[in-house]
Amino acid sequence: MKKEIKTITYDKELRVEAYRFEGMRHPFPNHFHEHYVIGLVEGGQRVLSCKNKEYTIEKGNMILFNPGDNHACTQSDGGRFDYRALNISEEVMIDFAEEVTGQRRLPEFGKNVIHDDEIACCFRVLHEMLLREIDDLGKEETMLIFLSMLFQNYGQAFEVRIAECREEIEKACAYMEQHFAEHLSLAQICHAIGLSKSTLLRAFTKSKGITPYRYLETIRINEAKKLLRQGVPPADAAIRTGFTDQSHFTNYFSSFTGLAPGGYREIFVSSNKVDKKRSDEE
Q: 163: pLDDT confidence band, cut at 50, 70 and 90?
C-alpha cells in the first residue's frame, strides 16, 4: 500500500508556503482559506465542489482559490491523490501583483479550475525549486514569470507593455558578465540598471530571447568550460563561477553540454597528456 507523504516548506525570501501531498486519500470538508491557494494535480481523480459548482479534477488540472472561496473535495476513483500547491497571503500577493502589473491591487481569479500545460510546467519548475530550497536568482525570476502568465490569462485584465529598454538591457548584460561569480539577485541587477523586476524580465526576454537567469547561467557555464579545459577540478570550477554547490553546477553543465563536468575536463586532460608525450618524444 502506498504510504501518504506530506512535504511542506516555507520560503523566507519569497514569503510563500509550498507543500506536496502524495498518496492522499482523506476527503476535505467544505471550508475556505484567508489566503490564495494555487495548486496542480499530479495524479488521481477527485470531485471538487467550489462556490456551488462541481468539477472532476485529475492530472494536469490547476486549482486557483481566491481568499474566501469555499470548497470541498473527495476522492472519486478509489485510488490516491497526488497534489502540489502554494499558499500565498494577501499581503504577499499584493506585493507580487504590484511588481508584475504595476498596479497595487489584489488579483481575482475568474476560474477555479484550469488546464494550461505551459503554466503548469512553469509552476512545477517553481515548486520544485521551493521544495529543494534553491536560493538563487532563478527562483524569484520563475515566480514572477509564472504569476505574470497567470494574471494575464486568468486574473483581472491588465495591459502588458513591453518596453524596449535597449540601453538598460546591455547594461544588465555587462553587469552579469562582470559579477557572474557572485551571488546575484534580480534586485541587484535592477538597482544597477534602474529598471523594475517585471520590466527587466519582459524587456530582457524580448531583446535576448532568454531570461536574465538563463543568460547568467550561460555566462557561468562558458567560464566553467574554460577552467575545466585548463584542468581545474569540477568542484573548484563550480565555486569560481558562482554556482551554489557542485550538484547544482553538474545539473546545469550537463543540461547545457550533454556531458558531466568531470567527463568534459577529462577530454582535455587526456589530450594534453598525449600532446606532452609527443613533445617529450620529439
A: low
Predicted local confidence at residue 160, as pLDDT: 53
215 burial type by CB count under 10 A (0-12 exposed, 13-18 middle, 19+ buried) = buried
Strands (E), the chain: 5-11, 16-24, 28-31, 36-43, 45-50, 53-58, 62-65, 71-75, 81-88, 113-114
| Cβ atoms of residues 142 and 132 within 8 Å | no
pLDDT at 274: 46
* Local confidence band at 193 (pLDDT 50, 70, 90 cut-offs): very high
Q: pTM for the whole thing?
A: 0.80
The residue type at 201: L
pLDDT at residue 135 tops 70: yes
How many angstroms separate the CA atoms of 101 and 38, rounded?
19
Instruction: Return the closest-CA partner of residue 224 out of 191, 246, 209, 205.
Output: 246
Q: Measure the CA–CA gap between 156 and 100, rounded to whole angstroms.
A: 12
Per DSSP bridges, beta strands 62-65 and 113-114 are antiparallel
| Distance of alpha carbon 215 from alpha carbon 168, whole angstroms | 15
